[in-house]
Amino acid sequence: MLTNYIKIAWKVLLRHPFYTFITLFGISLTLTVLMVLTSFLDHLFGSHYPETKRDRSLYIMQMRTQDSTRTGSSSGPMSFKFLTEYAKSLKTAERVTICTFVNSSNAYVGSQKIKLNTKYTDADFWEVAEFEFLEGKPYNEQNIANSDQVVVITDDFKKHYFGKTEASVIGKDVEIENLHYRVIGVVKGSPVTRPFTYADVYYPYTTPKSNYQRTGMRGGYVAILLAKKKSDLKAVQDEFQNNIRRIPLPGVEDGYKFAYVEVKSEPYVENFTGTLLNGNKGIKTIFFGVIAFILFMLMGLPAINLVNVNVSRIMERASEIGIRKAFGAPVRTLMWQFIIENIFITFIGGGIALILTLVIIQLINSSGMIAYADLTINVNVFLVSLLVCLVFGLLSGVLPALRMSKLKIAEALKS
C-alpha cells in the first residue's frame, strides 16, 4: 500500500509541473534555512576541533557573590590562585586546565599593526583541548616553572607576521607589546565561536602581564574540567561544589562585602545560556518568545502557504476521491494516502535542500566570515534534518488531507 501511495505521488508530481515547482521551491528553501541553522548550532555547541572532548567537559566561567540581603551582587572571572585551590585540586577529574579568556594585544611588522587575541594558559590546556600542531610542540611544565618567554601561535598569525613562507618558524622571535618571545609551536587555529580555546597567540601563564600572582578570588581566569568519562560529570560537579562550600563566609573582595558565593561548573550549552536562563522571569519569557517566533517564521508560515498550495493541488483530484469513497474507501485510508504523499514530496524537497545546504556551508567555510569555520553536515545534523522534513511534511499535509477525506461523494464527483 505504501509503495502505491508513493507511485501515485510521483505521477501527480509529473502531471502538475507548476504546482510541483511551487511546492518544491517552498519546501527546499525553508529546509535549506533550517539545515544551515542546525549546522551552525552544531558548530556552536557540538564537540568539534579543538574542543573535541566537550561532551565530557565542564566549564567554569564566572564567580557570583551576593551581600547578606541578596540585593546586591558582583560577578566575573576568577583568579589563578582561586581556581588552583578549588578546581585544580579535584580528584574525580582527569585533568583541569586554567586559562584566561581572550585578551587583546598588538604586534608590528614594520609600520603595520597586527591586532591580536591572546590567551594565558597552563600546560594542561594542550591536553584538554586537542590542537593540531603544524610545527613544533606545546610548552610544558618545565617551560612554565622556568618562566620561559615562549609562545604557541596560529598558522594565521604566522602568515601575517612572517609572511607566506613554508619554512619553519620554530625558535624565531616575535615581538608583542614590546616584549620578545620565542615561537615554540604553530597550531591550526580555533574558531572565534569557541572562546575558551580561541586566540592568535598562547602564552604560559608565568610570562609577563598574566597577573597570575593575584592573591584574591577575583581575576581574569576561567577553567575547564575534563572528566574521565561522560558518566563522571556529576561526580566532578559534586566534588567541585563541595570545594566551593569550603570558602569562608562572609568575606570581603576589593572592598565588597559578600555573604554568598556561587561558582558553577556546567556543560558548555548550560554555561553558554546561563546568563539568560538564570535571570529573572521577564528575561526568560523574552528569550523563549524570540526562539518561538523564529521557529514559527521558519516553519509555521511556509507550512501555512504550502497548506494552501496542497489544497489547490488536491482539489483537482476530487473526482478520484469521490470514486474511491463510492467503492468504500474509509476516511482514515484517504487521509494517510495524502499525508504519505505529502511527506514523500517533502523528502524530495529535503534532498534538494541538502544539496543546497552543502553548497552554502562550503561557501561560508571558505569565505573567511568566521575564522576557521568548520560547519558540516554530520550525523547529528542529518538526523535533525530528517526529523524536520517529517514534521514539515506533517504540518503542511494533515489539514489538506483531513479536508479532502471528508468530502461528500456527490460533491466530490461533481468537481
What does this structure look like?
- By secondary structure, the chain is of the alpha+beta class.
- The protein is elongated, with a radius of gyration of 29 Å.
- Helix 1 (2-15) crosses helix 11 (331-367).
- The strands form four sheets. Strands 5, 6, 7, 8, 9, 10 and 11 form a seven-stranded mixed β-sheet that branches.
- The model has no long low-confidence stretch (mean pLDDT 83).
- A hairpin with a 2-residue loop joins strand 13 (251-253) and strand 14 (256-258).
- It has 13 helices and 15 strands.
- The chain has two domains: 2-48 and 283-414, no CATH class; 68-258, no CATH class.
- Residues 20-242 form the MacB-like periplasmic core domain.
- This is FtsX-like permease family protein.
- Residues 293-408 form the ABC3 transporter permease C-terminal domain.
